[in-house]
Amino acid sequence: MIKSKQLMLHYFLLGIVMISSLWTFSLQNEASLSKQEHIRGVWLTNVASEALLSKQNIIETVETCSKLGFNTIYVVTWNRGHTLYPSDIMEKLTGNKIHPVIPDGFDPLDILIKEAKKKDIKVHAWFEFGFAASHRDTTGGILIEKMPHWASRDRIGKITTKNDFQWMNPFHPEVQDFISSLILEVVQKYDVAGIQGDDRLPALPSNGGYDDYTVELYKSEHSGKAPPEYEKDYEWVKWRSSKLTDFLIELVDTLRSVDPNLEISMAPSIYPWAEENYLQDWPSWVNAGLVDKVIPQIYRYDFDAYKKEFNQILLRQISQDQHHIFAPGVLLQVDDYVASEKILKEKINLHREHGIDSEVYFFYEGIKKREEFFKKIYKR
Q1: Could you tell me if residue 25 is inside a domain?
Q2: How far apart are CA 195 and CA 182, in angstroms?
Q3: Domain that holds residue 167
Q4: What is the CATH number of the domain that holds 285?
């Protein structure tokens, strides 16, 4: 009789556990599905655009996105050593509360979120510059001026520079804490749908990592042996890219503990170029479940070249069951180039043929030059 009661109690408790597990799975699945919405996205910048410079401009921007069928805006919140929102962290560090291009007392991120909600458009905070300190400033700008030991260094001791960007050291704990604190500041202060890193977060050009801190860290894990002089040595690249992945793991854990519904997306360059040149092993990020969306920048002017890179992503970088988190990054406008309707349609058709129903365009000013096309394609 005692054994019978014990057995009944066992099954009763097991039933509670099963019900609890099913309930938890249901909630997780519901949250996952909410993040799998088909994205019609666009990057919104403060470069070559006045969209963020006034409330009226923001209202018009949101209206344009809405009428053309866009449901997601990735808005710049961090570049050239400044935030595009009022930041207590930056005010304390540099004395500058917000990017100097923004009028005093104006908060474009707050206005954008409020206006976008009226049109059922999601806003994601895009930390464009990531670990880059400055652009076309060999001193590293105000961040390196205030914190010289934050600079990444190349083999000859100069600030790590590539394509005119100067870089902080993403392996230094203070730099990691700084970038993480900015992201947390936004998540805790604003009702953003998500945050986004790109080809500069987390990243570092592969000619970096020769500063004293990183060299000593490498030596401590390699029996005193110094890093290879060849910057693209396979093991040296992998060691550094794994450190960036470790940073992302910690960041994502923190963000998800603060807001489990926050969508975390990354927009890296194409792989393996991204890892060889910027230490971004983003297929590992995908496989580790660190990102809700991956938006590789497949920026190609020729359709055949685009198709080749797109197919490589589907064949080599993401599996069939990961297709739902893939949204190709499409080049729409840069400088004097504006993509033709023909090539845009070819790219969208390619996506749909492979079951990919999301894409994100760089950048906002281009959609105004292809209004009729997007009205037909993305009518909401």
Answers
A1: no
A2: 11
A3: 41-377
A4: 3.20.20.80
What residue type is 235 in one-letter code? Answer: E
DSSP character string of 299-343? --SSHHHHHHHHHHIIIIIS-GGGGGGB--EEE-EETTEE--HHH
Sign of the dihedral defined by the CA atoms of residues 77, 79, 85, 86, in that order? positive
Helix (H) or strand (E) holding 20: helix 2-34
Cis check for the bond before 129: say yes or no (omega within 30 of 0).
Answer: no
Those residues whose C-beta lies under 8 Å from the C-beta of residue 169, and which sit 6 or more positions away, are: 131, 150, 151, 152, 153, 175, 204, 208, 209, 211, 213, 214
User: Own/partner pairs for 309-312, CB < 8 Å, 24+ apart?
Assistant: 309/270, 310/347, 310/350, 310/351, 310/354, 312/270
What are 54-110's pLDDT values in tens digits?
999 999 999 999 999 999 999 999 999 999 999 999 999 999 999 999 998 999 999
**Residue range 171-199, pLDDT digits in tens:** 999 999 999 999 999 999 999 999 999 99
Candidates 144, 182, 149; CA nearest to 165 is 144
Is residue 29 domain-resident? no
Q: Cβ-count burial of 310 within 10 angstroms (0-12 exposed, 13-18 middle, 19+ buried)? A: buried
- Specify the residue for token string 């655009």: 49
Amino acid at 104: D
Q: Which amino acid is at 240?
A: R
What's the structural domain count of the chain? 1
Helix or strand run (H / E) with residue 124: strand 122-126
- Whether 10 maps to a domain, the answer reads no
Q: Is residue 27 part of a domain?
A: no
Burial of 75 per CB tally in 10 Å (0-12, 13-18, 19+) = buried
pTM score of the predicted model: 0.90
Pairing of strands 78-79, 82-83: antiparallel
Q: Cα separation of 128 and 150, whole Å?
A: 19
Cβ–Cβ < 8 Å for 358, 326: yes
